[in-house]
Every structure is written in C-alpha cells, then in structure tokens.
Amino acid sequence: MTKGKSGRAAVLAALGILCSAPPAGSHSGATGVVAERMEEMKAIAAAMKGIAGMQKDVAAFDGKAAHDAAAEIARRAARLPKLFPKGSSMHSSEARPVIWTNWQDFADRLSAMERQAKKLARAAAGAGGAGEIDADFKTLAASCKGCHEHYRQKK
C-alpha cells in the first residue's frame, strides 16, 4: 500500500499547486464574466481539494462527499464555456488569449473535464475507499493541469 500512497502523494502535491485558489486580492479588478469564471474555478479547486484530502488520508474517505464534490465539478465545468466569451481576456483575467484562437481545443478540454468528473462521481458513489477512485481522480487532476498549462497565464 505504501507504493500506491507515494504515487498518489506526488500527483496530489502537483494538484495542490495547480488547483489552489489564488490569494485574496490577486484578482482585484475582475468584474462581470471574468469575476464569475474566477469564482467557478475557485469552487472547482475547493471541490478538488476536498477529494484530494481523502486521497491523502488527511480526511476519512466518504464516498458520498467525494461523489458530491465530483458532481459539483461536473456541473461547474458544464457552465465554463459560456463564461469565456470573445474579448474577455481583460488585464485581471488569467485566461490566455490563445483560448479564443484555439477555441475548439479549449472547449473539448472543458467537455473532457466534465465527463471525467461525472465518471469520478459514479465511481465514488460506490467506492469503499480512496484507492478505488484513485485512477479516476488522477485523470481528472491531469485534465486540470493540461488546461492550465495551455490556457492559463503563468504567475
């Protein structure tokens, strides 16, 4: 079991960096759709952190809580495309302009994130432990990372 936990720990450490909510004030000046999408992303990050806590054994595994968090990620992921209208890369946004020149790839990544979150929710609903959802969680975390690498401004 130690081998699996150390592999999970590496993925979860990377996830913590990628999906962590930014410090207060880092989005100052964001308004309208930019502020709305930033709030959606923060909520997704919070849900990911909740599941990650179970994966790290920081919190006891709770299949219903993991299901609910993954379902929340899926619901929010479904809303994201409409929160990126053309011309919404204002100075307070972390969105890279390439989103709008490579829209189909961006939209496909959001759809994949939604599908993977739904898959994780289904798996978590019947899981008896964190190990049973490990692969699905890692795949979802990788979808976050991949999108951030391509479409989020570097800090």
Topology:
Elements (H helix, E strand, L loop, with lengths): L1 H18 L12 H24 L7 H17 L18 H4 L1 H23 L8 H18 L4
Provide structural commentary.
With 155 residues, the chain is an all-alpha fold. It has helices at residues 2-19, 32-55, 63-79, 98-101, 103-125, 134-151. Helix 1 (2-19) packs parallel to helix 6 (134-151), helix 3 (63-79) packs antiparallel against helix 5 (103-125) and helix 5 (103-125) packs antiparallel against helix 6. The termini are far apart.
Please tag this protein with its features.
155 residues, mainly alpha, elongated
Number of helices: 6
Gap between N and C termini, in Å?
36 Å
Number of DSSP strands?
A: 0
**How do the helices and strands follow one another from N- to C-terminus?**
HHHHHH
As a percent range, the share of helical residues equals: 55-70%
Gyration radius, rounded: 16 Å
Strand content: under 5%
Q: Which structural class fits the helix and strand makeup? A: mainly alpha
Mean pLDDT: 86
CA-based shape: elongated
Largest sheet: none
Unreliable residue runs: 20-26
